[in-house]
Amino acid sequence: MTDYQDYALFDLLFTLKRLEDNFINDISVDELLVILYLSAFIGINKGLSYSAWGYKFYLSESRITSKEIIKAIEMAQEMEYIVFSPEEITNVSLTSSGKKTVQFFSKLSVFENRKNSISNSCDICLLSDLSTVLNGIYSNDELNNPDLRSSIKEVLGEVATEHMYKNLINITEQVGLDIRDPILSTLTWVTYNNTEKKTHSG
User: CA end-to-end span of the chain, whole Å?
Assistant: First the structure.
C-alpha cells in the first residue's frame, strides 16, 4: 500500500475503535467521513499540514467524501476487519480481527499524531450528540456554500483552513476558551456553526 492508503486504512479502523470506546456503534460511512474530515481539521490546527495528513477530502453533491477512505473501506471489508450491518446496509463496525489489527498498529509512532486528532474528534461526538456535531460541521463556511453543491471540489485547502481557523479563534476568544484545548474549542466552533445556521434559516 502507498503511504496515504496506509493512513486511510489506519484512520478508518482507529476511528471505529474510538467511537466504540465512546459507545457509538454501527456508524454510517457518511458519518465516518465527516468525523475524519473533522479529525484532519483538528490536526491542521495543531500544526500538521494538510499534505502531511496523507489523503484528501472532497465535497461531492453536498456530501464529504474521500477516495482513499472509500478504498480503505473496501480493503477492510475484504480483509474482514469491518462488517456492514444487515439492518442498516450503510452502517459499519469493527470485527474482532479489525480490533486486533488496530490495536497492533496503534503502537507504531508513525500514527501518533493522527491518533490524538482522531481521538479528539471522537470525544467531541461523545460530548455532544452525533447529529449536532455533523450538522455543525456541514454548517461551516467552507461546506455551506451553495456554489459548491453541484460540483466536486477539494476541501480543507490552505485558504479555507486559514479562514476556518481564524473563525475558530474568534469564537473561542468570545467565550473565554483556550484555543489550545482542541476538544472544547472545536466543540464550541461546531455549536456556533449550528446556531448561525438556525439564525439564518429562521
Answer: 48
Give residue-wise pLDDT tens across range 146-190. Answer: 666 556 788 988 878 888 889 899 999 998 988 889 999 999 999
For 59, residues 6+ apart whose C-beta sits below 8 A from its C-beta are 65, 143, 148, 151, 152, 153, 155
Q: Phi-psi region for residue 27, left (φ > 0), alpha (ψ -120 to 50) or beta?
A: beta
What order do you get walking across the sheet with 152-155 strand by strand?
63-65, 57-60, 152-155
- Tell me the H-state helices in 46-151: 50-53, 67-78, 96-105, 112-127, 130-138
CA angle 74, 75, 77 (to 5 degrees): 65
∠ at Cα 13 (15, 18), nearest 5°? 35
Of 16, 60, 21, which is closest to residue 39 (Cα–Cα)?
A: 16
Cut 0.85: pTM above it: yes
Domain ranges within the chain, ordered by starting residue? 3-190
Helix (H, G, I), strand (E, B) or coil at 27: strand
C-alpha Rg value of the chain to the nearest Å: 16
Q: How far apart are CA 132 and CA 150, in angstroms?
A: 24
Summarised one tens digit per residue, pLDDT across range 64-85 is: 999 999 999 999 999 999 999 8
Q: By the 8 A CB rule, do 84 and 26 touch?
A: no
